[in-house]
Amino acid sequence: MIVLSLLKLFVLLISLCVVNAYEIELCNNSNRGDCNCGFGDIKTYVFTPGDYQRCIHTFIPDSADSSNPLPVLVSVNGYGQGRLFPGSEAVAKARYYGYALFGIGSTGPFDGAGGFGLEFPANGVINPSNPTPCSASDSRDYGYIEGILDFIANEATLDTSKVYFEGFSQSSMFSVYASVCFADRIAGLWQGGSGLAKTFHQPITPGWQGQCSASDFDTYGNDCCTDHFCTDCTWWPIYPRTCENKLIDCIATYTNDNIACGTDFYAYEAMVAEGNDARMLSFSPSSDGPGGHRNPENKFSWMVGCLGIVDSCSDQCEASFLECIETNSVDEFARCEVELGNGNLSQCTPGCAPTLEMLKTSESPVINLSEGNFGTQTGLGVTTVPQQPSCNNAFGSFEDIGYHNKCRPPVGQGAAVGEIETCSNAPTPTPPTATSIPTTPTSTPPTSMSSCSDTTLRLKIVKNNGNRITRNCGWVGARNTVGRCALDGVSAACADTCGTCDTCIDASLRFKVIKNDGNKITRGCAWVINNNNRCLFDGVGDTCRSTCGKC
User: Fold this and answer.
1) Do β-strands 520-523 and 396-397 pair in parallel, antiparallel, or remain unpaired?
2) Parallel/antiparallel/unpaired status of strands 100-105 and 54-59
């Protein structure tokens, strides 16, 4: 009897350890660790799925009810912890359309390319024999994603069949990794300014992913491509083999995005080859939208409309909306969507997702629809021969278009080839596990509004009297911070000090850069746009946040 009782106690302790490994607690001053607790409508939860604490920042509209559970959009920002703020556009759009918004990111270590804190799988080595490295041993953040999905599964007011991920640039690459590995639990994703990197192909990502392993890039930097080229690599961040589980993938890139244009086409091809519902939007820059490495204008409308997070507007509403539009433009689309939301357009339900024709009044991209779907609209015409994006820079294999000027693998080396691992050999998805979730929410005032970093570079600043000075962000925060943040270009470069982390723009100021050879030069963000590798110079990513995908 004593032995049996001890055995039962042992089993109980083991089960508690398993649950506690994913125990998720409401953030407070005692358990917050490196997480910033939310305030107002934002509730933050903390847990430690592995060696590092992670945060889940949540906004769940008051309309959430177990009888009508809401869709969930998980927004990834690997350069910070993914904080949400009550007054942000992201939260306002979630409230308007009626979906829950989760913000996720990293509390460190920020040891990835460009200071990225979420870990991609398998040391960045993806190939036909290991196309989908989807286990806890492949990435320290696999358990983080699993814990988030378990959290959603245990919340009755959230719809587990309508979970979507989104991110921009490298953060959207992480969204692809998460969505493919958990395709049985994620319905779709939005890829802004990204796609699929291919080994021995241009364009090359700023962190040389796909051309070098993560450890080799960390050790050798740009030289890894010439001296330590990854002959075991084929793609990055993952190949979209989802087997019986199918994803919606909305891929949005500007044709003058020298980082991502071309990778969007690779992603579209791979998604279609694996039977996923791919929707590629190739935007051209215009006077209304300058393009470059950024999301399209009215990005949340495009995101919700393309993914179908909520039901698309009716045909009758679409007709009313098009009558509202006086001339196609970004601002005119926004004006008419406000009219729709205010109930001023006939036969429209406020909060419906804009249709493709409605969105094309904002910007009109070249559109490829692998299954003829957009949002919850169907029958729009299936793309049989996809139209390649008209990128400013040529894309394709090194053999076809030539080597990158800093990536010349030794003669005879190339990408790993072979038959892609069959679904029968792919890892089995892990079923949801029980997660401890508090039922009595409390709110903790913020201790910091930061979800980004100030640039470390010295900036060329023009004072109000016209005098030109060279200063850093420490000078901005030392005194008269409000006045100094108001100087032209300062708030974009010193986003943490000035409280402008939620505004994703490049700084207009010129700045001093120390090159790899030790020489100092003065440049602006236009110089960075011309060569995405320049984002890797110290401080440049935090100065040119939009171009370098750091927001």
Assistant:
1) unpaired
2) antiparallel
Asked if 236 contacts 209 with a C-beta cutoff of 8 angstroms, the reply is yes
> Which helix or strand (DSSP H or E) is residue 197 part of?
strand 197-198
In whole angstroms, what is the distance from residue 411 CA to residue 498 CA?
A: 50
Overall size of the chain counted in residues: 551
pTM across the whole model: 0.78
**Letter string b/e over residues 355-379, b meaning 16 or more CB atoms within 10 A of that residue's CB:** bbbbbebbbebebbbbbebbbbbee
Residue 447 has pLDDT above 60, yes or no: no
- Tell me which H or E stretch contains 55: strand 54-59
Convert the pLDDT of each residue in 456-479 to its tens digit: 888 888 877 777 788 888 778 777
Dist CA 519 CA 486 (whole Å): 31
Helix, strand, or coil here: 306?
helix
Contact partners, residue 384, CB within 8 Å, separation at least 6 = none
Backbone φ and ψ of 108, nearest 5°: 110, 170
Classify strands 235-236 and 201-202 as parallel, antiparallel or unpaired.
unpaired
Rounded to 5°, the CA angle 184-188-193 comes to 135
427 contact partners, CB below 8 Å, separation of at least 6:
132, 134, 135
Q: What is the mean pLDDT of residues 227-243?
A: 96
Output the CA torsion sign for 18, 21, 25, 31: positive
Is-contact 138 427, C-beta < 8 A? Answer: no
Residue 39 above 50 pLDDT? yes
Rounded to 5°, the CA angle 338-339-344 comes to 150
CB 393 within 8 A of CB 202: yes
Q: Which residues contact 87 (CB under 8 A, 6 or more apart)?
A: none
What span, in angstroms and rounded, lies between the C-alpha atoms of 214 and 199? 14
| Signed CA dihedral, 266, 269, 273, 279: sign only | positive
State both tokens at 531. 């060569």
Mean pLDDT of the chain: 88
- Rounded CA-CA distance 479/256 in Å is 40
Contact yes or no for 71/101 (Cβ under 8 A): no
Long-range contacts of 367-373 (CB under 8 A, 24+ apart): 367/279, 367/280, 367/281, 367/282, 368/268, 368/278, 368/279, 368/280, 368/282, 369/278, 369/279, 370/268, 370/271, 370/272, 370/276, 370/277, 370/278, 370/279, 371/277, 373/248, 373/277, 373/279, 373/308
Q: Pick from 213, 260, 209, 207: which is nearest to 533 by CA? A: 207
Distance CA 23, CA 11 (A): 18
* Structure tokens, 163: 């979970």
- Residue 350 preceded by cis peptide, ω within 30: no
3-state secondary structure string across 81-134: CCCCCCCCHHHHHHHHHCCEEEEEECCCCCCCHHHCCCCCHHHHCEECCECCCC
Please identify which residue in the block is written with the tokens 């903390």.
46
Q: From CA 240, how far away is CA 323, in angstroms rounded? A: 40
C-alpha–C-alpha distance, residues 330 and 244, integer Å: 39
